Amino acid sequence: MPTSTDLLQGTLDLLILQTLSLEPMHGWGVAQRIQQVSKDALQVGQGSLYPALYRLEYKGWIKSEWGSSENNRRAKFYRLTASGRKQLQSELETWDRLSAAIGLVLGRATEVSR
Amino acid sequence: MMTEFLTRLRFFFFRKRRNEVDDELQFHLEQSIAARIAAGLSAAEARRQALIEFGGVEAAREQCEEQRPGWWIGSVVQDVRYGLRGILAHRWFSAAIIITLALGIGLNTMVFTLVNAVLFKPVPVPGGERLVSIESRVAAGDRTLPLSWPDFQDYRAQQKSFESFEATTDQPGILSESGIAPQQYHLEHATTGIFSMVQAKAVLGRGFLPADGTPSAAPVVVISYNVWQERYGGQAGVIGRQVHVNEQPAMIVGVMPKGFKFPTGADLWEPLLATPQLAKRDNRSLRGYGILKPGATMRQANVELSGIAARLAKEFPADKDFGVSILTFQQRFNGGQIRMVFLLMLAAVGFVLLIACADVANMMLSRSLGRQREMSIRTALGASRWRLVRQLLIESVLLSTMGGILGLGLAAGGVHWFDLSTRAIRPYWILFTMNFPVFGYFAALCVLSGLVFGVAPALRSSRPDLMGVLKEGAHSISRQAADGSPAGSSSHSSR
User: How far apart are the first and last CA of chain A?
Assistant: First the structure.
């Protein structure tokens, strides 16, 4: 469960930033959203989710606030900061470049872009 | 990225509440259970499955904590505190190590201070780190000769790497006048920029004026603080006094500050006048001194002056086979054997420190046998090998630092004594004092010697034979008694 490679860790950060860019969310919500959007392909366990959230918060890319959840429970909500938005933008660009390049190398350029 | 930095800084100082993570994880778990119940599972089954999926809380909590900027400082502080406790608990053992290291590190720091002063430290004048000595070099070898007056003039006129470029020639100077017995001093004939080159101002009267260097000028002499005090009792009336220097009349016009003896132990300074004798190219009697422009290197200056020297060699038969030699004061005056002696001394005390470290390593190794149980227990509780090694190394660096600080005191004493006992015979510009390079060297010694004597014992004792030692603890086999632990010795008879 501990995020093993830099690629994976960076990717999880990117997924979290992207998810939070839509609306503020609590940790559980982030995990659920990633799972739903990826059609259950990506499941984020708490063991890597929360360290990632803390890491992003310590970097100042997201901010946390206590609020109440849909079912009126106390929950910690995360939202993207301005510098987080910038970071997301630059990470998305890196991702596009990288995935396009890998696609080219693997000869699957069409499939990737689809 | 300022905001990012500030955020880090904030979290560095203000950590989050510990239960924040717990609350958050709890919420996550409850949501997970609720989702399963909503999907149709019974409450108990939902809880069971959620807990299985959730996994260990402690690991996640630790990982969250490790994301905090500077979290490791806390654990290092822990190790330091634990190390200090260990050092206090074995105080005689520690004292033996600290004294051994104090001698080793102290001796090295002292010798390095001397070496630094004799071989490296800039001359203590403003711009001293850019001050160089310039002489002629016999092209066929490393031998150097002083410059001739015309050569000096050509160098000075054509060079671009120096801020100032002056020359002196020294000889004994007998100071005489009516009423006081004549006395011999060290006289420098210097070009008139000699004082402004090193930004020296007379404490009384004046230094040289450019006009003092012209043949028609009234002859003047500037005296050192020492001469002023000893010969004239420090009277202000000395300025304007007519005296004879080597039987030539001159007027005292200035007194230089205390300790000023530039360039090499001068007591009297007279302007250098271009006599017909001096104007010959084969009369080599001048030592050149220059201050490099900021940013100019000795190598650049060397290339430039060598070019000039090559042109002079072509033009004048007297300069055939002469190059130029640019060196620092240390290289010029403390080269050759002096340099060798000091470097050998440094090497010798370096070996002394190595032997001290080997000694201490032995003591630590013998103690590490007695710590096997401690290490086994810590390993069994989950300490990684790296963590144990780090802990042990922190302990040994603590010991070496304590030894070093004691040693620094010894070194300061030794340097002071050396300074006093060589005051009469050493050049005035060598100051035996500690400066930043010395403290840097000292700090490096402390850390390095700690690592050198610590690493072998640390590696040795951080890999305990876990099962063996823990079993021994239970059954207390006789070997255990050797470490003197009460538990081991009391049940010793059970074997």
Answer: 31
